[in-house]
Amino acid sequence: MKPVLQKSFDKQLFLDNVKRHLTSTYATTQEHATKRSWYLAMSRALSELTTLDLLETEQDEHILQAKSVNYLSLEFLIGRLTGNNLLNMGIIEMIREAMSELGQDLSDLLEEERDPSLGNGGLGRLAACFMDSLAAQEFPAVGYGLHYEYGLFKQSFSEGHQQEAPDAWCGVEGYPWEVARPELAQEIGFYGHVKTEQVNGREVRRWIPGMTVKGMPWDIPVVGYKSNTVYPLRLWECQAIAPFSLESFNNGNYFEAQHALIDAGNITKVLYPNDNHEKGKTLRLMQQYFHSAASIRDIIRRHELAGHAIEDLPKFETIQLNDTHPAIAIPELMRILLDEKGMNWSEAWKISSQTFAYTNHTLLPEALETWDEALILRLLPRHMEIIYDINHRFLQEVRTQWPGDVTKQQKLSIIQEGFHRMVRMANLCVVGSYAVNGVAAMHSELVKRDLFPEFHELYPDRLLNVTNGITPRRWLQYCNPDLSDLITSKIGDSWPVALDELSALKALADDSDFQHEFMAVKKANKVRLAEWVKEHLDIELNTDAIFDVQIKRLHEYKRQHLNLLHILSLYYRLTENPQFEMAPRVFIFAAKAAPGYYLAKEIIYAINMIAEKINHDPKVNEKLKIVFIPDYRVSMAEIIIPATDVSEQISTAGKEASGTGNMKMALNGALTIGTMDGANVEIREEVGDENIYIFGLEVDDVEKLKASGYNPYDYYNADPLLKASLDLLLGDTFTPGHPGKLRTIYESLLDGGDPYLVLADFASYVEAQSKVDQQYRDQTGWAKKAILNTALVGKFSSDRSIRDYVDNIWKLKQVKR
Ligand code: 26Q
Known about the structure:
Layout: H1 4-8, H2 11-25, H3 35-59, H4 61-64, E1 68-72, H5 82-89, H6 92-101, H7 106-110, H8 122-137, E2 141-146, E3 154-158, E4 161-165, E5 179-180, E6 186-190, E7 193-199, E8 202-208, E9 211-223, E10 230-240, H9 246-250, H10 254-266, H11 282-305, H12 313-316, E11 317-322, H13 329-340, H14 345-355, E12 356-359, E13 370-372, H15 373-379, H16 381-401, H17 406-412, E14 415-416, E15 422-424, H18 425-432, E16 435-438, H19 441-451, H20 453-458, E17 463-465, H21 472-478, H22 481-491, H23 512-537, E18 546-551, H24 560-576, E19 585-590, H25 598-615, E20 624-628, H26 634-640, E21 646-649, H27 661-667, E22 671-674, H28 680-687, E23 693-694, H29 699-707, H30 712-718, H31 720-727, H32 743-749, H33 758-776, H34 779-792, H35 798-810
Parallel strand pairs: 1-2, 1-11, 2-10, 11-12, 12-16, 16-17, 18-19, 18-21, 19-20, 21-22, 22-23
Antiparallel strand pairs: 3-4, 5-9, 6-9, 7-8, 9-10, 13-15, 14-15
Helix pairs in contact: 2-3, 2-6, 8-35, 13-14, 13-16, 15-16, 23-34, 24-25, 24-31, 24-33, 30-31
């Protein structure tokens, strides 16, 4: 760790640069500049510093001669960069002082930045945390993603219903942290046909695309914590280069060419807003291929520029596929090796299958990607041939392993037979990778046991676990400066790069002074959140109440409606019995629903309508408040997480691959109420059973219950509190004058069969919640548990995740600059 920047920082030069950008880049004067112009000019001046380091890192001979990881992801949910980069550069206070000389308050300026929302949720945020940890630990890396013009939609509410608006994250002025790299642009083909050519007496297949587009890279600097290492996050933007292919035009395929023209401008227009649900749309496949092809070509360009032979690709480059979304990169690399580099199949396959590794993020069947064979054949005819070839050779292996077992062949085949033949991208990834990992211990076990048992038998060393993590720089040091300072005052300042050191706080868990300081920080963070809520939503919050938080994408399997049923049960008990004892609670939700996910939107509507009623009902609103914070995004999480007392992680067991919000909240001293699912299992292992509230069915119970014929009515009829809570959805209690408007949820849970076992877990959840309530009323005991949560979750640093990848999968060496 060399805080070199800190030493070489030249304040006067920096101030001159800010002023220069203010006038030449943003065309304004110091007298007339808005806060936004000041923020832009400041960030541009800062990004010049990191661009220099980026270029130096890129040309560093030690890095060129070392092995790198290429992290391919359709999503990078990076959040605001300016504040976090200042922290990583170690110059926050210097810049604060410098900007104050210009009459500007740094914190105000930082609020001007819009979040680049280039991801849906967990998977995209994980990619961002991983880039931070790679740079912090100086493992050579490049992140490859897409430069969407519109990120994840902006959410607002109209009469309780979710409204979506486009998110033009770059603004009209452009994003100050990115730099265009036109010299690194790539041409990418689509459609067309394949022909056979003779090259040196050998038959070679050659793809003649029917349309070509340009991939323009934009680099965003990933700044290593207190080092000069800056790796690129390279985001590809699609631009049209020709109105249509002359060849298609001459072949008479005029309409196909026209159609292509329309698609070209659209390819990177917008991020698909589905999370854990695949929809087989042509444009999505075009995005995926565009991303893969541009990235693969850039990787080979870098490899050859460093003077390496293509045969040595796996020695210098590894390619991590963030879920199956970039899976088409596998046949793309094969195509280049076979058709452009003239290799034979076994040479090419050896290289390709030693280069790729794949991370699985889901077991949900509806989220496993399959693509219509006919679509791939039309869009990428040569890739489809290569997929057939991969499958053909793979099925021979299957036949050798299980002679005569047709069922095995059908199950493992990359091609799913049937009326519409489909390509199973997960199977392609397992066959084409040297390592496959799940994202939490339990998830990885289920990947082996339920998702890919035959693959596990066939390739016993291929399936691994790497438990997810979060960057402690953004998710503690940056977002919770008071807690950070308190921790540093007790255990020194190396915990941000060695999070296990937090365990030293264990010794202070019973220390009454420390407990008071710790809880005072929590209180201040709750006040900060309450002020935000008052200012933006005009809701008054009692900051002595329990802040009970569920913030994540809206999904049935995440069971926001279980949380809601608990709230209804409290409301019911309070209205029935005004003496009902409970610590006051503020329930905080934030969640976006995929625009096409009807039930998810109904759940948002229900939460909003119930909030409206309860928050204005004097019979209960001293005890109960509900806040649905609109437009959940990284910068909002940075305010909510430090203020959280209770972290809701209540997915049906076996459904949440890992979760990472659970880690962020525990690290900031929240107590988890959660199921035995995903990384909750490992959080419990770390913090101990007495410091977490585990409830509900476990994976095996879920299976047994489903197998025995689960009937939600059994629970409804047997549990009066459950029945009363659910029945509240039927009348017009929460939709005055409009009875039945919340019926959809009621019906999905009863006649709909309750696929995620909300009713089965209700009683156990309510019981766990009452333990939470009891505990909160003993503040000393609560403080101890909160401290122990912070102290004992060091494992969940993404630095550790990256070291696991490095040691067990990528085999990289650090290159210190
Ligand atoms: C696929 C095809 C077409 C359109 C969209 C998609 C798509 C997009 C995003 C499918 C899935 C996603 C995102 C999945 C995701 O975020 N999964 C989460 O990954 C986290 C990081 O590993 C885990 O912590 C969560 O448990 C998991 O749900």
